[in-house]
Amino acid sequence: MKKKLLAAILAVLLCGNSFSVCAAPQGMAGSISLQSGAGAVPSNNKDAQNYHLYGNYNWNWAETVNSYLYENQSGGLTRVEYIDGQIVAEDYDNGFRLCASYAIPMELSQWGGFYAGDQYNFVIFGQSNPSESNETEVVRVVKYSKDWQRLGQASLYGANTVEPFASGSLRCAGYGDYLYIRTCHKMYKSQSDGRNHQANMTLVVRQSDMTVTDSYHIVMNSSVGYVSHSFNQFVLIDQNANLVTLDHGDAYPRSIVLMRNRNNKADGGKFSGSVDTSTLVAFPGGTGDNRTGASVGGFAETAGGYVTAFNYDGVGGGGVREIYIGYTDKSGLSSRVSKVTQSSGMYTPVLVSTGLDGGYLMWTDVNGLFYYTRYTDGGTIGAIGTADAALSDCQPICHNGEVIWYVTANSVPVFYRLDAAGVVSATMADAQ
Questions:
Q1: What pLDDT, in 10s, does the model give residues 212-238?
Q2: Global pTM value
Q3: Three-state DSSP class for 139?
Q4: Is the preceding peptide bond at 253 cis, omega within 30 degrees of 0?
Q5: Which run of H or E residues covers position 6?
Q6: Residues near 392 by Cβ (< 8 Å), separated by ≥ 6?
Q7: What pLDDT sits at residue 54?
Q8: What sign has the CA pseudo-torsion 263, 269, 273, 274?
């Protein structure tokens, strides 16, 4: 044990003030506390909320989220980010001064995402399964204490998966003892055409004993929440403990579709079963054409419904995109959408709820200009403002009466604050 402790201390000292992050020494459980003097770790997450360009695949699907921010138990903020194959966690005080740093080891080869629960932190990993073996671990959910001590794991094997988190995202919602994970995967070869198709996938973990209580990964249809291809996935648990999801589909169905579980509440640890659906936008074009001309960026609850933010070119691919806000009434799940902008070239927007009465809609354009406006219950918006700011894949949060997020541009974090008066300000990490 003494040798392992000395190895850990040496690993920290060798990090110094360099860009690299120390990994846990082999055989050392949990993560290693780094020197606070090492400084914040640079990265590049600016505009990462936007769908990405892949050769001829023109901003068709999302990626897993790399950057996270949450309010920690000391009343400050914690940044968690997946950077170049390593996971960094940094604690900040309310002046955005770095207090402590951690390196969390990668346990499988692929990053899935992170979730800050009320009692625990969770990191989701994955790995490929090209042989289509039902014995291969394809998803691992690891539970940590709030001071990053490893406490346990839950694993999913086979699960009709050759590639977890493929061509989409991963988001989580917690309720009581249960963690709900909504993501996507590339599936085993189809018997009908021999191809590996992509779809959404859901996993439920009981936090107390890290048992998988439910998972859904087979080919089915939208009546039970299945979407294929599903290019972005959102999940929330509303005030009535309803499980509500949002998917960006290009085939079955070819739409932005909201689904609410009909039979299961969030306190039961089950997700499988029938759903009620509501279509926000039905895309023109052929079934399975990856080009939909849209990207989805936000999903939130209000007192009377669910609000969705997305951009769309109005033609299903090839046009210039504008910002839209959608509203789905809770009582009947009827949906309507409204165009927010009157100019083209808008990147994927972001929503941040400040309560059941509404929140903020934010976006940037191709010239880097930042826009923001209030939205209210019902999906109406206020005046649109601009500021010297940027967006990233860090979901903004409410903290001390302000909306806060961070952006990096081959730099340490710049923290943006939107106060109750609607004023945006910026502070670089470690600024005195």
A1: 999 999 998 888 999 999 999 999 999
A2: 0.91
A3: strand
A4: yes
A5: helix 2-15
A6: 45, 46, 47, 48, 49, 67, 405, 406, 407, 408
A7: 58
A8: positive
